[in-house]
Write a structure and sequence with these properties.
single chain; alpha/beta; eight-stranded mixed beta sheet; 5 helices
């Protein structure tokens, strides 16, 4: 795969871009190019459990900037921090107002979420329509790499999936499964890391 280059930022999150080639015919316009990018957040095992609240606070604003137009976001978190981070994310997502999505987007978003559930994913927060074009931000765990949510053609919308990483399932192996997508990779950190 393409190498990752890290860049620092004033928010404490370092940012990496890893662009993988994909079908240019499918990307005929700028909006299509934008929707083919998946935001990925890598939370490495060096942070402590107490720092997960701060890490959640860093991830959500970045994800929210493009959650209506991008492929579902993905957080790769070391297994030691998984439960704590999911708890912090769940509370913040449940507290968020519904998101207005584009007409025609609702059915494909519902289909992708149902397919994820059928594939064994667990819905932790959100996932409900609250109006014709209003969706609650959604948090999934236990999403498999073959899930409809993680495929290049997944519906766009305010969906975030959290996957555990460990020695037997390292971050590089997970990213290697996303070979047909352009990725925007972020490395949140905390002062307590």
């Amino acid at each position: 795969g393409a190498p990752l280059t890290r860049f620092g930022s004033s928010s404490g999150i370092s940012f990496s871009a890893m662009v993988r080639p994909h079908d240019k015919a499918a990307d005929a316009d700028a909006e299509s190019l934008h929707t083919q990018t998946r935001q990925v957040f890598v939370v490495e095992g060096g942070a402590n459990a107490a720092a997960t609240a701060e890490i959640a606070e860093q991830i959500l604003p970045i994800w929210q900037k493009r959650w209506k137009e991008s492929l579902p976001g993905l957080i790769l978190v070391h297994e030691r921090l998984h439960s704590c981070l999911v708890d912090h994310l769940r509370l913040r997502i449940l507290d968020h107002e519904p998101v207005l999505i584009r007409p025609g987007q609702s059915q494909s978003l519902a289909d992708s979420m149902h397919a994820a559930l059928d594939g064994g994913a667990t819905l932790i927060a959100g996932g409900r329509k609250s109006g014709p074009l209003d969706w609650q931000p959604t948090l999934f765990v236990n999403v498999s790499m073959t899930s409809a949510l993680l495929q290049a053609g997944a519906a766009t919308g305010p969906v975030l999936a959290v996957l555990r990483t460990a020695a037997c399932n390292p971050t590089s192996a997970v990213l290697g499964h996303l070979t047909d997508q352009s990725l925007e990779v972020h490395y949140p950190a905390s002062d307590g890391a």
